[in-house]
TrEMBL record, chain A:
InterPro entries documented for this protein: 2Fe-2S_ferredoxin-like_sf, 2Fe-2S_ferredoxin-type, NAD-red_Hydgase_HoxS_gsu, NADH_UbQ_OxRdtase_Gsu_4Fe4S-bd
Protein name: 2Fe-2S iron-sulfur cluster binding domain-containing protein
Pfam families xref list: Fer2_4 (PF13510), Fer4_15 (PF13459), NADH-G_4Fe-4S_3 (PF10588)
Homology family: Belongs to the complex I 75 kDa subunit family.
Keyword check for Iron-sulfur: yes
Species classification: Bacteria, Pseudomonadati, Pseudomonadota, Alphaproteobacteria, Acetobacterales
GO molecular function, one term: metal ion binding
Provenance organism: Lichenicola cladoniae
TrEMBL record, chain B:
InterPro entries: NADH-UbQ_OxRdtase_51kDa_CS (IPR001949), Nuo51_FMN-bd (IPR011538), Nuo51_FMN-bd_sf (IPR037225), NuoE_N (IPR041921), Nuop51_4Fe4S-bd (IPR019575), Nuop51_4Fe4S-bd_sf (IPR037207), Thioredoxin-like_sf (IPR036249)
Protein name as catalogued: NADH-ubiquinone oxidoreductase 51kDa subunit iron-sulphur binding domain-containing protein
Gene3D superfamilies for the chain: 3.10.20.600, Glutaredoxin (3.40.30.10), NADH-quinone oxidoreductase subunit E (1.10.10.1590), NADH-ubiquinone oxidoreductase 51kDa subunit (3.40.50.11540), NADH-ubiquinone oxidoreductase 51kDa subunit, iron-sulphur binding domain (1.20.1440.230)
Biased composition range(s): Basic and acidic residues: 343-353
Family: Belongs to the complex I 51 kDa subunit family.
Database matches in Pfam families: 2Fe-2S_thioredx, Complex1_51K, NADH_4Fe-4S
């Protein structure tokens, strides 16, 4: 057995990982889908949404930030975990303003798609109705803060991939918001519509103008196949 | 408008060596001088440090004691906690409103005063207490307020407030000393003893004492030190966690004000044992009034050779300590958030692994220990491990400093052996009629009379020391609501379950208190509480639902009594409904090392 190979089980299925991989990366490669929202394969993980939380050796931990280790026992697809994940998705729905029916991202939105996958019908929690402004200062991009789920993907992409640091957070707790690197709004930053930061947003917070509705409703990413099915398709059928 | 900010910012950046990790000191310098960190200042810091303005805004906007917009020249912060409220804070607040002509949360039109609420300021034994700029005033009554405001208006500002009200200074809070707090404490006996041994022998001694961290989580100190010593790094760091943010605790304040050398000895011993040259004491912003005294103690230690080069004549052992002042954020007591804060960032906890012992301050191996833990270390070196294990229980050796406040005759700090029952503690402090005791602060456990026989020890009721006692006349649900407010205010916001969940829990509790909740609402609250406990990233979120879940279990009748009149409570069995959540609650420490 070679040293670099790490073996561990996920819901009883044995998978392999290489040193340095996180649980979610190893599972992605093995065709096991762990629900996630803030994680993006091209970005350093941040562990913010907690949707990917699994029970790892008996303790809960976020799969996107947990290094794969020899012999670990991971529970992923269990009812209690999915119930908690659904509860988190619900929290994100009520924290912002999410009128899916007339949202540009509908069908292409990871939050919505996870809601469907996890069986969230209608939120029971009270909506918090935050009053967040729309930033329309950029010629090519709209920043609809109402939709922001504070996943920090744009922050990480802007810093790592674009080398720009256009985005950051401000405030703390329930008052935490996305902030941009200019007093006058996104239009005064170095942001460009082709930036990686613009394309990683899982919801319709960063919206490219004149680009929406190219794919008609009903034919969009998650209209066609549920979120996660691309990963699950990689898995060899079990014998 | 913001004249001079640009220049001042540049000077400060230069003074701190163009070091991005000292951003906290840079912005605090500006806050002290101008009362806020202006846009101009942010721009200047950004260009001088070659970072983006958004990074500075991210950091500054996180801390309660840092402002982006000008507020009053004098800041009056009233501590709002269940204990301050039962001691009459509402009347004191009204008196301030009347004297200043503004409501809490406002700034006077002449820009002279801002009056606001703040979380616990570490004075639970002497409430109602206020923080006026950096001066602490305690045991206030409404009649004091006109004098305070007059003195402040006189231009004597905060420096002059103390003399106006000498009785309102911070009192010593030591009621009952024990082995830890008896005997000499500035003779460096423990330090001398440690320096006579090999560093690894020091760690062996600490391990033999079975000392567990006094900050709440109870991780074995000897093991932490061993892991830290073994970790490879260019430098090793020793950090003393003096954030003391848990409402109701003030024992670290006592140690820092009356036994500082004992604490510093402990840090120097750690430095010796770990092969470290640098110690940092992270002092909560609320304790800024202790800063000058602590600096003086450090200066004296340098003179005496107990700090600096070749400590106590030990060639090759150089160690110094600097003090980092925090800026108002409870979460910065969490060790990894503390490190982020020390590095000049927002206090958001880190993911683990890696643990701080492996990659801590500035990415180097770091041992973070509580103030009391360091004091214990010094005593263990002085008297030996066997002396230490002679008190306490099997899994919790030694004594524990308990901060007790609320409805009791003798609030203050008590040094008691681990294993003492809640009842015994209540007898000591004079609280025969206690109806509700919150052990371990809001993140700890609400304990009802039927459980007063339980023991204070890691194997039963584990605690950092905060103990709030409430008599039969108190409204338990109101107290729980104040704890819920605390967590909403103090959640760092990083992760969804805690950021949103704490707010939803507060909303639910308000509904219960207003008599508008149905049984289903209570079940929903319980479900949210469970999710927050299980899914949150750090100990804050993992324990934020404790007061709610704990009182649902210990005082179900209080919830029942509040149910909407038309609610069907036949077959109501809260205990059963809560089975799952109760299993997971408790101050479950985030996995620390190993
Ligand atoms: C939200 C939160 C707040 C904390 N606040 C403090 C604190 O104020 N002081 C402290 O010593 N430990 C605090 N801790 C525990 C620290 O993370 C850490 O465990 C401790 O400082 C380690 O020192 P010890 O081993 O000596 O206890 C806190 C933990 C959490 C989760
Ligand atoms: S961003 Fe997603 S979840 Fe939000 S409204 Fe649009 S489609 Fe719905
Ligand atoms: S804008 Fe989009 S990518 Fe950025 S934090 Fe908000 S939801 Fe995430
Ligand atoms: S649990 Fe709360 S305090 Fe801890 S990381 Fe999450 S939001 Fe921040
Ligand atoms: S995907 Fe792991 S925490 Fe968000």
């Amino acid at each position: 057995m070679d040293d670099a190979t790490i073996r561990f089980t996920v819901d009883g299925i044995e998978i392999e990982a290489v040193a340095g991989q996180t649980v979610i990366e190893a599972c992605d490669a093995a065709g096991i889908y762990i629900p996630r929202l803030c994680h993006h394969p091209d970005l350093a993980p941040a562990g913010q949404c907690r949707v990917c939380t699994c029970t790892i050796n008996g303790r809960n931990g976020a799969a996107c930030v947990t290094p794969a280790m020899q012999g670990m026992v991971v529970e992923n697809e269990t009812k209690p975990l999915n119930d908690d994940r659904r509860a988190i998705i619900e929290m994100l729905f009520v924290e912002g303003n999410h009128p899916c029916v007339y949202c540009v991202a509908s069908g292409d939105c990871e939050l919505q798609a996870l809601g469907y996958r996890l069986g969230l019908d209608a939120p029971k929690q009270p909506y918090l109705w935050p009053g967040r402004p729309l930033d329309t200062t950029h010629p090519d991009i709209i920043l609809d803060h109402d939709r922001c789920i504070l996943c920090s993907r744009c922050i990480r992409a802007s810093r790592m991939e674009d080398g720009k640091t256009v985005f950051g957070f401000e405030g703390r707790g329930i008052a935490m918001r996305l902030n941009v690197d200019a007093q006058g709004g996104l239009g005064e930053t170095q942001m460009a519509a082709i930036d990686r930061a613009a394309s990683v947003c899982p919801v319709a917070c960063i919206v490219i103008k004149r680009d929406s509705y190219k794919v008609p409703n009903g034919k969009r990413r998650f209209d066609v196949s549920p979120i996660g099915s691309d990963i699950e398709a990689k898995r060899m059928p079990r014998t | 408008m913001t004249e001079g900010h640009d220049e001042a910012a540049r000077q400060l950046v230069a003074q701190f060596g163009f070091d991005r990790s000292r951003l906290m000191d840079i912005v605090q310098g500006l806050q002290r001088r101008f009362g806020h960190v202006s846009d101009d200042a942010v721009r200047s810091i950004a260009s001088a440090l070659r970072i983006h303005a958004v990074e500075i805004e991210d950091m500054v906007s996180f801390y309660a004691f840092l402002d982006r917009k000008p507020r009053g020249r004098c800041r009056i912060r009233l501590s709002r906690t269940p204990v301050s409220m039962i001691k009459g804070m509402a009347a004191v607040a009204s008196a301030f409103e009347a004297a200043l002509g503004i409501s809490v949360g406002e700034t006077s039109s002449d820009g002279a005063f801002t009056l606001e609420w703040t979380s616990d300021i570490g004075m639970a034994d002497q409430e109602p207490a206020a923080l006026i700029d950096t001066t602490v005033l305690t045991a206030l009554v409404p009649d004091d307020v006109p004098h305070i405001v007059a003195a402040l208006r006189d231009g004597r500002r905060s420096a002059g407030v103390g003399p106006v009200l000498p009785k309102a200074g911070v009192r010593s809070s030591l009621v009952q000393p024990g082995p830890l707090l008896s005997g000499g404490h500035d003779n460096a006996a423990g330090l001398q003893a440690a320096l006579c041994r090999e560093p690894v022998k020091v760690i062996e001694q600490i391990t033999a004492s079975r000392l567990r961290g006094r900050g709440g989580a109870g991780f074995p100190t000897g093991l932490k030190w061993r892991l830290c010593r073994q970790a490879v790094g260019e430098e090793h760091y020793v950090v003393c966690n003096a954030d003391e943010g848990e409402p109701g605790t003030f024992k670290d304040r006592l140690l820092l004000s009356e036994f500082p050398d004992l604490v510093f000895d402990g840090m120097v011993i750690a430095g010796y044992a770990l092969g470290s040259r640098h110690g940092v004491l992270y002092l909560r912003g609320e304790y800024a009034y202790l800063l000058d005294d602590l600096q003086a103690v450090l200066a004296k230690r340098r003179q005496l050779g107990r700090l600096g080069v070749a400590i106590c004549g030990t060639i090759g052992f150089d160690f110094d300590i600097r003090i980092q002042l925090g800026a108002g954020a409870y979460i910065c007591g969490e060790e990894s958030a503390l490190l982020e804060s020390l590095e000049g960032k927002r206090g958001a906890p880190r993911d683990r692994p890696p643990f701080p012992t492996e990659r801590g301050y500035l990415g180097q191996p770091t041992a973070i220990d509580n103030v009391e833990t360091f004091a214990c270390v010094a005593r263990i070196m002085e008297h030996g491990a066997a002396w230490f294990t002679a008190s306490g229980t099997a899994e919790s050796t030694g004594t524990k400093l308990m901060s007790v406040a609320g409805d009791c005759k003798r609030p203050g700090v008590y040094e008691v052996p681990f294993g003492i029952t809640v009842n015994e503690l209540l007898d000591l402090v004079g609280a025969a009629d206690a109806e509700f005791v919150q052990v371990g602060g809001p993140s700890g456990q609400p304990v009802a009379p039927k459980d007063f026989g339980r023991r204070i020890a890691y194997e039963d009721l584990s605690t950092g020391g905060s103990t709030m006692v409430f008599g039969p006349q108190r409204d338990v649900l109101e107290i729980v609501l104040q704890f819920a407010d605390f967590f909403v205010d103090e959640s760092c916001g990083w992760c969804t379950p805690c950021r949103v969940g704490t707010t939803l829990l507060r909303t639910g509790l308000r509904k219960v208190i207003a008599g508008q909740a149905s049984l289903e609402d209570i079940a929903t609250m319980e479900a949210v509480a469970g999710t927050v406990t299980r899914m949150s990233r750090c100990g804050l979120g993992q324990s934020a639902p404790n007061p709610i879940l704990g009182t649902m279990r210990s005082f179900p009748h209080l919830y029942e009594a509040k149910l909407r009149a038309d609610a069907d409570i036949s077959g109501f069995d809260l205990d059963k409904a809560l089975g799952e959540a109760i299993k997971v609650q408790g101050r479950q420490p985030v996995p620390e090392e190993g």
